[in-house]
Amino acid sequence: MKSTSDGSSPFGEVGRGNSLPSDFISLMRLHLGEEQAEALFQGLQEPPTVSVRLNPRWKSQLTLNPELTDPVPWCPDAYYLDGHKAFTFDPLFHAGAYYVQDASSMYLAEVLKKWLNESNDPKEKSLIALDLCAAPGGKSTLLAAHLPEGGILISNEPIRKRAQVLAENMQKWGSLGSVVTQNFPDEFGHFCSMFDLVLADVPCSGEGMFRKDPVAVKEWSMDNVRQCVQRQRDILRAIVPTLKAGGLLVYSTCTFNRFEDEEQVEWLQSEYGLQLLEERHFFPGRDRGEGLYIAALRLPAEDKEEDGFTDKVVMRKLKTLNVIANVSDYRSQLTNADCQLELSYDDAIRYLRREALHVSAPRGMVAVTYQGVPLGLAKSVGTRLNNLYPAEWRIRTTYNPIEPLPCIFLPKE
Asked: Angle at the Cα of 164 (from 162 to 170), degrees rounded to 5?
């Protein structure tokens, strides 16, 4: 494929109406080669895939729809769907029974399966993990589902608005031992040599989101790429010292260029002596998912034995961070409610819109459920429920969906 006279893509529509930047076309040909670049440009014209990942907490309680027959090969309990669905209008989506996530990002499950337990024996000690740039929560909910029980997961996001979204998703997912923080990378300096696992899904130029996000196309430039490279280096300088000897660093971006991907990993190897275990690119058109680069690296173990960090030490250090949510606290509120009340579909949607419900229930705090999965809290005054669903979580739209509901699970008989 050759670019047109104005340097834009001859394929025309990319990212819902935005042509590929000419510098991006030239850069991909340089970094990928002509044949692979052409395949990528063609792949960016294809519709994005849609996939979901199930919450293992509810596997035994909910019945999976047998029509979900297209599994994501590198992630357990994950499936491709045949197009977009009205997830907003599925109460089980809001309850955290599943998470809508790009299939490429789910490759983290395969990385954990292959490399995490080589450096950590969950039978001997609790694992301490940090997801540094975690919003909106896709990779953190995956980590929560796949890390050994009994460990601690810190899901962090420095930007306040994004951190609130992260906190919502982590609390709905409901993994014990998870806390959500809002801190910048250099504020983790006193966690030196503490983490068994650090996931650094760093801010990037967003090339892998071109066919889903028109803003990513409009904002891309070589200057932005260079700024991202510098920002990524600053983040890595701040966070690599927090990795325990023998620990695992997972570095990822949603970009294709070598500057933000392979060359950053080469820098980590030369600067810190990290050992590259695996790296993989996902390309639209070649892989069933959006653009992603992911690399697993290990900090070599030292000859001397390191001091272990007890849960008390970790919790004491957590007090120095800006903790905005503790998943255990939210789950205990649901568990300790005076009673549970199952809602119909219509009442569940009313509850999620934070409307008052004229439903009879014993007086006191009530955990309202849908298909047995908790949606949140309400206070019963006898014939009416005062809705305690967090205002910032509510469904804001009042329109009824045109597209079909997800139907991830079969309704209870």
From this structure: 105
